[in-house]
Amino acid sequence: xxxxxxxxxxxxxxxxxxxxxxxxxxxxxxxxxxxxxxxxxxxxxxxxxxxxxxxxxxxxxxxxxxxxxxxxxxxxxxxxxxxxxxxxxxxxxxxxxxxxxxxxxxxxxxxxxxxxxxxxxxxxxxxxxxxxxxxxxxxxxxxxxxxxxxxxxxxxxxxxxxxxxxxxxxxxxxxxxxxxxxxxxxxxxxxxxxxxxxxxxxxx
Length: 204
Prior knowledge:
Elements (H helix, E strand, L loop, with lengths): L1 H22 L64 E6 L2 E6 L3 H13 L4 E4 L7 E4 L9 H5 L11 E10 L2 E8 L7 H15 L1
Antiparallel strand pairs: 1-2, 2-6, 3-4, 4-5, 5-6
Helix pairs in contact: 2-4
């Protein structure tokens, strides 16, 4: 008698499992077998139904990331905590890193010129609109101590020297400062952080 109960219970479990596999199997959804119906026929003397107009959703084309922006590490300037308490801060946009200055573009262009000339950079071209062209030469502090000479495995810091230019864009009551190479291409994240960070200290 006990064996018959066990056999019955086993058969019930197997039937449930098999039915579940059939239910959740790789079955095609119903819409795969659907067909398009004939257009609606409106009898004479009746108005045609007003069809729904499609909603067009558009957005501006975003720049694809490149260079060190593809690395898994997030940029250090994403956090803009405390930005309401300072006149300048770095932020992130679809075009990369930029320096936000709470000032008019004309004033920012003038202040940038002074910052470039007083930061040891070589001004190559002044522009009233802020598109200044300059050369930046990074200076490394040579630590010639005994222990530092023993640490031969340490990599030399990244050299960001080169020809650059700035680009200003008005943003509300402030101005965005973007950093570009001399050929007009956007500078990668680490290079922008390095040089814009110098401007941020100067512009305060």
